[in-house]
């Protein structure tokens, strides 16, 4: 695996690379002429404010593209949440991933709409719906979000505190809307959250 400390040694040759493996917690190098297409695993893009508050910009999985050319934010980092395999896409081949570039913009808008809900409870509920649609798989009791989530990571995505996320997740569990399995969550079949997911899917199909 390639660690973050080794990035400078191959940065000049990124355009010649095809697929690269990275380990959990590694940072993908942010280069102005390179996009990364995720072939396997999950990454998140982050920035942080002047006061040091981390802001999660998105969670990205198989088929998504990420990279410095897609943002004007500084600082900007791409963190591996799992073991990851990515393909380096140099600028002269970006036309080959136009669909993924457009999808990147759409996803950013979806997440922005989620964090603009006034009530944090609603942000969390809609985020779980979004995560289930992107990373979920059906199980007997509902929809399993196949991603290890920390309360801090969720808080950084919806703009609240870890303590608040912990409290609200407990409320959702008490209401029978979700079940927690270690750091995975199952949205239960008869929950309002899953109804939102199905309604969203029907809307996407209709469009």
TrEMBL record:
PROSITE patterns: HTH_CRP_1 (PS00042), HTH_CRP_2 (PS51063). InterPro entries: cNMP-bd_dom_sf, HTH_CRP, Tscrpt_reg_HTH_Crp-type_CS, WH-like_DNA-bd_sf, WH_DNA-bd_sf. Residues 118-192 form the HTH crp-type domain. GO terms for molecular function: DNA binding; DNA-binding transcription factor activity; kinase activity. Pfam families: HTH_Crp_2. Keywords: DNA-binding, Kinase, Transcription, Transcription regulation, Transferase. SUPFAM superfamilies: cAMP-binding domain-like, Winged helix' DNA-binding domain. It comes from the Bacteria. This is Catabolite gene activator and regulatory subunit of cAMP-dependent protein kinase. It comes from Rubidibacter lacunae KORDI 51-2.
């Amino acid at each position: 695996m390639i660690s973050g400390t080794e990035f400078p040694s191959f940065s000049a040759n990124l355009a010649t690379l095809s697929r690269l493996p990275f380990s959990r917690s590694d940072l993908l190098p942010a280069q102005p002429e390179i996009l990364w297409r995720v072939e396997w695993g999950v990454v998140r893009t982050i920035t942080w404010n002047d006061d040091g508050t981390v802001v999660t910009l998105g969670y990205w999985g198989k088929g998504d593209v990420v990279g410095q050319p897609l943002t004007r934010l500084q600082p900007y980092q791409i963190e591996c949440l799992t073991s990851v395999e990515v393909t380096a896409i140099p600028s002269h081949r970006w036309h080959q991933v136009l669909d993924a570039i457009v999808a990147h913009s759409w996803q950013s808008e979806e997440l922005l709409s989620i964090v603009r809900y006034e009530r944090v409870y609603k942000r969390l509920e809609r985020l779980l719906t979004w995560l289930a649609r992107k990373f979920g798989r059906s199980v007997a009791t509902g929809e399993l979000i196949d991603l290890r989530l920390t309360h801090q990571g969720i808080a950084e995505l919806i703009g609240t505190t870890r303590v608040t996320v912990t409290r609200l997740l407990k409320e959702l569990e008490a209401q029978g809307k979700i079940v927690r399995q270690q750091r995975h969550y199952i949205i239960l079949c008869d929950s309002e959250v899953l109804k939102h997911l199905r309604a969203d899917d029907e809307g996407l199909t209709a469009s």
